[in-house]
Amino acid sequence: MNKKKLLSFAIALLLGASSTFAQKAPVDYVNPLMGTDSKISLSNGNTYPAIALPWGMNFWMPQTGKMGDGWAYTYASDKIRGFKQTHQPSPWINDYGQFSIMPMTRQLKIDQEQRACWFSHKAEKATPYYYSVYLSEYNLTTEIAPTERCAYFRFTFPETKDAYVVIDAFDRGSYIKVIPEENKIIGYTTRNSGGVPQNFKNYFVIEFDKPFTFNKVWADYHLVEKHLELQSNHVGAAIGFATKKGEQVHARVASSFISPEQAELNLKEIGKKTFEQTKEVGRKAWNDVLGRIRIEDNDENRMRTFYSCLYRSVLFPRMFHEVNAKGETVHYSPYNGEVRPGYMFTDTGFWDTFRCLFPFVNLVYPSMGEKMQEGLLNTYLESGFFPEWASPGHRGCMVGNNSASVVADAFMKNVTKADAEKMYEGLLTGANSVHPRVSTTGRRGYEYYNKLGYVPYDVKINESAARTLEYAYDDWCIYRMGEKLGRPAEELELYKKRSQNYRNLFDPETKLMRGKNSDGTFQTPFNPFKWGDAFTEGNSWHYTWSVFHDPQGLIDLMGGKKMFVSMLDSVFNLPPVFDDSYYGGVIHEIREMEIANMGNYAHGNQPIQHMIYLYNYAGEPWKAQYWLREVMTRLYFATPDGYCGDEDNGQTSAWYVFTALGFYPVCPGSNEYVMGAPYFKKATITLENGRKLEISAPKNSDENRYIRSLNYNGKNYTKNYLNHFDLLKGGRLLFEMDNKPNTGRGVNESDYPYSFSLDKK
């Protein structure tokens, strides 16, 4: 072959490789195992491989942990106990509506310990829409393809007379019935971790495509000989087949929180589709959702991380509604136990997700955001409160009244189509009361807060300073929404005034937020490195920045921009010292900060995740550009240990997605996104209105992390923020990137993002 032909051949090979790379769909980059290598003492995500559709009602997962263990799948495990339908939002909140299916051969083993089977990640394939694993001791393969409320199982058996499938409806009250003439099993599980009414049940139906040669029900791991129907504390079923080598047995599974009949109806999501067709429908659904953001870059690992984070950003809050025989959207209410019309979503904690997960939905998937707001209104109508942590009903977890942010942000962005006046009524209710049984719903300590302007440190209300700071921001959210609704001036003035209550906790001596006693004195002794106590899963250095709506006010309190920047710098310059005495030991969030080698910056937990963006409010945006790049390149990877703390229902993932695009909603409700710098050479967002937003940075690299200039739709743009409604018009952001900071860009006050103190109104 001559040189010319050789060159042509080489070019053809390169073009072929490039073409193959280009044909890769967004879902192909997703690693559902990202974050699964976690444990109680150290979280690298605390995730599990969610085999599901976006926002789907039911997820599926391989179960490595014992029944009831919140760490239901951990990467370090080497045995699978079953394949579990799950609704778990986090290991700390645990699960509800759960049951499992486990195939086996040779000998029937019912007990969860005995049936557990060795597996290897080398013989495991996990995608959002498809899961497969080889179970070595049984010489069989299990595959799962999900829909929103169903799953299609495919078991490939060896030649045997002893092929079995065990169904485990779990303990704490369950029911099972085998119907051999229909190759069907029905049942329900009641197991939950709280937040449910007395009549809570998850009804399931399983239909096989092969007649049973063996069928039994069992209770407490003991077979029952004379019955095929059983209700007790812990029941299940075992069915069997004779199979040929390589024979595939299929099972279609659906469940419902409403009724057995609705479970049967939900099974129509699969209908007459084959396993492969169901798998392909799921793949398309994921590509439709993930494909709303197209990334172009020559670093495939970063694309894997991006799309893995995007996948996590569109799982929660999950649907809790179903479609009845009349085609109407209905839901079982986890608040009053009734079947009610309309949407319902659950499994999210607003303390985490108000920060950027819900703003992300409002920007990229507003039609889904609209449904979520309708669901929130239904929660208020059915329980008297908006949820703060829902799984599936009100749960006692975390602090704050951050439903105000979630509701106000959607309303301010015109996402909400529900009754806004009624939703505003719900915000006022939550601001001035507390749930009678779940004290983290509403505002614990509101009586003190409304009277004194803060929740006192010495009245036995935990984490008082964190509550105060979040309530103040929530009051600003109420003020913003009320202003747009044209509420009375007296009412607006009240919440406007309360939005400044953060000032009551500022200690001018330390220039940090500090707990305050009911007599007006600051708590003593004060250790700014003490986690918990006056703060929530963080210390004063982390929570001082929780003035989302008024960074300028905080700047003024600290003595001006130079001191403010110096305090921001200190977070990174300080050693990772801590005081864990409030907890009586090192909690995993502390450990994650300690080992990250970023000083006292604790990205693994939410309170400080917005902090880096605050440099934009003080005229030094290049420092934000530097540190954001450090966080993305050092703390996020599409690997089992790929997060730097709890992923938390999409919040930490959405932080990455926003930051990779180059902007972030520091203050939901302001309709602004604060600038960082883009992570990729090109990203294109296809908005729901059909317009496209192109973010281009051709010279982007880890060295070229600084913005030299920004051209926005053909014009030079110097501001440190982007407006939501401007972005909805589409257009092009063209970044000129450089390896050194441009200290003359974004330095004028006219360039700074929104602060209440600078608001001209």
Describe this structure in words.
About 30% of the residues lie in helices and about 20% in strands. β33 and β34 form a beta hairpin. It has a domain at about 300-680: Glycosyl hydrolase family fold. It has 20 helices and 36 strands.
Task: List the main descriptive attributes of the protein structure presented here.
about 750 residues, Glycosyl hydrolase family fold, nine-stranded antiparallel beta sheet, seven-stranded antiparallel beta sheet, about 30% helix
Report the uncertain regions: 12-21
The SS-based structural class is: alpha+beta
What is the molecular shape? globular
Calculate the mean pLDDT score and round it.
96
- Give the C-alpha Rg: 27 Å
Q: What's the total helix number?
A: 20
Task: Give the strand line-up of the largest sheet.
Answer: 6-7-8-9-18-13-12-11-16
Helicity, as a percent range:
25-40%
Provide the CATH superfamily of the domain at 301-682: alpha-1,2-mannosidases domains
**What is the number of beta strands?**
36
CATH architectural designation of the domain at 301-682: Up-down Bundle
Secondary structure elements and their pairing?
Blueprint lengths: L2 H20 L36 E5 L15 E2 L1 E5 L12 E7 L6 H4 L1 E2 L5 E4 L2 E6 L4 E7 L3 E8 L2 E9 L5 E6 L4 E6 L12 E7 L5 E6 L2 E3 L4 E4 L2 E9 L3 E10 L3 H7 L8 H16 L2 E4 L3 H14 L4 E2 L1 E3 L5 E4 L6 E3 L3 E2 L1 E2 H4 L3 H8 L1 H18 L5 E2 L12 H10 L7 H12 L14 H7 L11 H22 L3 H10 L7 E2 L4 E2 L26 H4 L7 H8 L2 H13 L14 H8 L25 H15 L15 H11 L1 E2 L7 E4 L6 E5 L5 E5 L9 E7 L2 E2 L4 E3 H4 L3 E8 L23
Parallel strand pairs: 32-36
Antiparallel strand pairs: 1-3, 2-5, 3-4, 4-10, 6-7, 7-8, 8-9, 9-18, 10-17, 11-12, 11-16, 12-13, 13-18, 14-15, 14-17, 19-31, 20-24, 21-22, 22-23, 25-26, 27-28, 29-30, 30-35, 31-32, 33-34, 33-36
